[in-house]
């Protein structure tokens, strides 16, 4: 008869606090709570509780139109900053809109239209302070290639816009899966790619690749070396230098903040005057040229819902919608991280949807929060979505009266503005910081960066997200098990790896599992627990006194368990029984305890072998070891029972 | 000046045990350890350590050929059981092999060949005791449909077999993702499907659907009601009754175990004699009929590596290989669960690979561990892989001499044997048990069951696996946060939900996070933590004395953190600072502490605000509250410092 039998016939001293099993909850009530916790963690209706009816209405309106929340607190100082930022991004929006519209095979002016209506809507409904609304290069390129396959570019290109908003539903889930590391890598990569694209303007090239990857861009540039324009490159270099110096000064001395803020606008004015007076447009400096005047014509009647190309339009709408939303939310999040505020994914999705529906009826094409424009907005010191209103008004004035003034704006100046904004956003130090804190996050970051630079923005994002999810699964499949030891002169037990001065308790092995026990790790954990026990037995197989008699599992780190997990614990229990070792559980959580109880495992282990703390479990085991060694079990037990 | 400022200027009493930050490990060493822990958790080379050379060789051989491990312990009693089981499954293997080969559009005899060579190899190399090797219906059907599209069925159908083994590599990862619940549902579903298929034999039908789903099978049966054969149905009913009674008796009285074991063989003999003497084959009872004599011809020379259909063969090989391996390992695992032993996924994959390579050279087609045959083997009381050897030898003898004897075996008897084995494997009680323990596992189980019954075996498995993985992701994205309270008369702090008799500590909120903090949950946790704090402040905003001044985070359940997580904690810290609340950390693990330290968060919170236990953290906070309330901070601090 082994030791286990002796132990099983004894009772443990019940002088310890009992472990509580929570009362079972009705199934549907717990289901309701779980669902609410899962989908509405911030309890958005909480603020409506116990409020009078008019207040409820006001709060509801504030939820849908965040402008109502911040407008009352808006100050003159904020407006000054937003005015400068708004004018700056407006000066960017014009050439950017034109060039992206060209990328999408649309009439150039529709790029300008897209910078008028959507920003106004976003300003009222969006929750980001820094986002500047406009068209993006990737979505423009995709539009051209997807619609171009089947439809002539002149035919109803506004149709698919209307459909883009349906895609916002599907894109929502991406938001949770963008990690800090992904965003750092993605931003660096996007900044690199956008900067490289500006080489077209700076070198004064007429033809350029539509791909964004490094290899294509380099090939495109070096294949037309004879077309490089030194006049353009010199002008670009000078303006870039000016912009960088302005930013450097602003950073060094807080009083000079205005230098950086007005630099882009100054560059545009100086550049335009320079070209106007020197007629440099005839000497290799490209300028924006003639723009049509007048506001957005209505296009609601042009939407071709009965066209045979509707399926193509729907597909294009969904895919570009997902890409645009993903970029917009990634950009919005990145900048909110800098300024330490929080943007609401739900509100953003609503804002993007409405903004694109309205856009599709007013001759705009798909808009979101483009990275470059938002970066300029942020660097120009914007304070709220008012900068979008200023930009929209500036674009409106431009459309109405000022298009001739931009005739002579050199494209190279706009390229310089974009490059200088980008250079500030490749964060070497943030990437190194990731390496210091978490090697895996660094890997994710580098994957996002090189994916974006060498493949494309989508591929970079997708690879980084997949890698991040892989890490989660890896964590779940291979959780850590820790051996605990006693911290001297206390009843505290902690990992012997972390606290090397802890003492082993002879005859007792204390293990802590650091993850929920699910089917993905139950096989692994069985192997690992048995390996710890084997190793422990190898160590101390000399005398009977120090022979391993108890294994205590610290369940404090086990948040949940499924039926594969309870089966695994049952298997471990019966293996230990066969070897004459007793399984003891310490500090199980409510959920886990409920399931162990339902699985009858609590009865099999014996409820008296469940303890509130590891300290109490060790005390009880030590009592039993003394007991069986001194062969006075009965009198001991009686004494202990008397104590209770 | 808020309270936070006062608190920040004070120092905490350092009379508590320090929290240890583990020393940094060299990067490549920790990488090596992580990789080893991930891919070789059971440390298979451990047994080789410190062993003399010959012993190492012996252990190595045992690893590849498990037969060397168990053969020396093999006893005569085991052999008796295996002999009966082997003969029983041999009597099944013959009609099963023939019908499945027909499903695959292969010559009927190749089904018999496949029950001769592969089982011999599996017996030597496999690690399951219960698995009976043979062909499976699903893979047979898929072979026919995939190869049939491009290749004439008579043309080199053995080729793709050779390629199946390459698929085993890719299939390996599936193994970890089959949960207990999935297996219960999958087995029940497969048993239902296989039983339904037997209606063909029992009703004496000649034509039958190739689909396995309930709807197709029912349509197939009721569309040919006029072909139902009552003679066959009556005979089937009688044998099924006999088999079920035999099993019932064996279960009731242990001494009658042999009744169930010999029943299938007896049924085959009685059925064959009955048909032979009554010439029932002329009255609607289908029999196996004439079989070609002679052993497997070699087919190694027939493998058509230079054929133009090689890509088709490779594709078929990979897909059927994955399906076969998944079914085989799922079946092996299920039965090892019953008998409470462990099968080694690596060994199984090696065995399946070698067995199919050898099979492809000896006129066999793809083999694995079919569910029906394994179930019969298990029910017949097999003890080891020797039953496979017996079956192989029996099939060999059959191929050589006995094919005429099986001429008169009625197919309805074989159907009855299969159905009676299946009925024992639909585990209502296990499914109900799942409902008791874990509702989500029950859902997974039902998904697997209905997926298999109403769609197909693959779809059922895939749906169940996807649902299980979704649960993991859901756990990660929405971890629980618990509020802790003090257990009276102790320094122990536990969840107030689980232990309702705990006391709140005035002015202090203690939160426990029950999962690693990763990018998927960092947004959620920020929202949730701030909501707890808001709710706590709403509760106790009356007097300054009970005002919330400290938030203690119990980090004991946080196994890991990434950079999104450290940023989140930083944001929480600065939000709390703004509100005049101090953030305190208790019991952080080694990994987490390292990362918090690298992220400079430890310095920002202040190392003196990290405690080994929640109890110590509360003590320190209480000391500080007393302090600031009694306005004697300086003298108090001095007193405390003197104590250190």
From TrEMBL, chains A, B:
It comes from Daucus carota subsp. sativus. InterPro entries: SLC26A/SulP_dom, SLC26A/SulP_fam, STAS_dom, STAS_dom_sf. It is a multi-pass membrane protein. The chain crosses the membrane at residues 121-147, 159-178, 228-249, 256-277, 309-330, 350-368, 388-406, 413-435, 447-474. GO terms for biological process: transmembrane transport. It comes from the Eukaryota. Its main location: membrane. This is STAS domain-containing protein. It is found in: Membrane. Keywords: Membrane, Transmembrane, Transmembrane helix, Transport. Residues 498-621 form the STAS domain. One of its GO terms (cellular component) is membrane.
């Amino acid at each position: 008869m082994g030791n286990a039998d002796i132990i099983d016939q004894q009772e443990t001293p019940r002088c310890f606090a009992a472990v509580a099993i929570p009362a079972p909850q009705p199934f549907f009530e717990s289901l309701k709570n779980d669902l609410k916790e899962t989908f509405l963690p911030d309890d958005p209706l909480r603020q409506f509780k116990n409020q009078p009816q008019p207040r409820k209405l006001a709060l509801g309106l504030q939820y849908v139109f965040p402008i109502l929340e911040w407008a009352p607190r808006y100050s003159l100082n904020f407006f000054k900053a937003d005015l400068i930022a708004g004018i700056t991004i407006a000066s960017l929006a014009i050439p950017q809109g034109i060039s992206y519209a060209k990328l999408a095979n649309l009439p150039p002016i529709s790029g300008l239209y897209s910078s008028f209506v959507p920003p106004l809507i976003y300003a009222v409904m969006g929750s980001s302070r820094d986002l500047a609304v406009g068209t993006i290069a990737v979505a423009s390129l995709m539009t051209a290639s997807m619609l171009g396959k089947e439809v002539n570019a002149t035919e109803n290109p506004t149709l698919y816009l209307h459909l883009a908003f349906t895609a916002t539903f599907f894109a929502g889930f991406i938001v949770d899966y963008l990690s800090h590391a992904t965003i750092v890598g993605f931003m660096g990569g996007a900044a690199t790619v956008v900067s490289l694209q500006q080489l077209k303007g700076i070198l004064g090239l007429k033809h350029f690749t539509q791909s964004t990857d490094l290899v294509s861009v380099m090939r495109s540039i070096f294949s037309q070396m004879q077309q490089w324009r030194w006049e353009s490159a010199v002008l670009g270099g000078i303006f870039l230098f000016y912009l960088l110096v302005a930013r450097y000064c602003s950073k060094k001395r807080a009083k000079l903040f205005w230098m950086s803020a007005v630099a882009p606008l100054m560059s545009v004015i100086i550049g335009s005057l320079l070209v106007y007076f020197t007629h440099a447009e005839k000497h290799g400096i490209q300028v924006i040229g003639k723009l049509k005047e007048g506001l957005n014509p209505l296009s609601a009647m042009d939407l071709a819902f009965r066209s045979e190309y509707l399926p193509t339009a729907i597909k294009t709408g969904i895919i570009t919608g997902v890409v645009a939303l993903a970029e917009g939310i990634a950009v919005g999040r990145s900048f909110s991280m800098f300024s330490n505020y929080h943007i609401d994914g739900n509100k953003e999705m609503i804002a993007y949807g409405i903004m694109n529906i309205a856009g599709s009826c007013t001759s705009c094409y798909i808009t979101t929060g483009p990275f470059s424009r938002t970066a300029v907005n942020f660097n120009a010191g914007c304070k709220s979505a008012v900068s979008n209103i200023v930009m929209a008004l500036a674009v409106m004035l431009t459309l109405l009266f000022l298009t001739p003034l931009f005739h002579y704006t050199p494209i190279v100046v706009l390229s310089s503005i974009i490059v200088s904004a980008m250079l500030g956003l490749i964060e070497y130090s943030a990437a190194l910081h990731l390496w210091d804190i978490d090697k895996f996050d660094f890997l994710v970051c580098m994957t996002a960066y090189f994916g974006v630079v060498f493949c494309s923005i989508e591929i970079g994002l997708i690879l980084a997200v997949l890698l991040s999810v892989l890490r989660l699964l890896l964590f779940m499949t291979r959780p850590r098990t820790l051996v605990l030891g006693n911290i001297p002169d206390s009843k505290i037990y902690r990992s012997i790896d972390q606290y090397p001065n802890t003492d082993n308790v002879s005859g007792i092995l204390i293990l802590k599992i650091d993850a929920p026990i699910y089917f993905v790790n139950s096989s692994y954990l069985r192997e690992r627990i048995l390996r710890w026990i084997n190793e422990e037995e190898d160590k101390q197989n000399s005398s009977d006194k120090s022979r391993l008699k108890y294994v205590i599992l610290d369940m404090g780190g086990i948040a949940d368990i499924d039926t594969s997990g309870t089966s695994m614990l049952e298997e471990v229990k019966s293996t230990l029984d066969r070897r004459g070792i007793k399984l003891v559980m310490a500090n199980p959580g409510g959920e886990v305890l409920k399931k162990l109880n339902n699985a009858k495992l609590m009865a099999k282990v014996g409820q008296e072998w469940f303890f509130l703390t590891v300290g109490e479990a060790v005390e009880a085991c030590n009592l039993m070891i003394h007991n069986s060694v001194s062969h006075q079990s009965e009198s001991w037990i009686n004494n202990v029972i008397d104590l209770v």
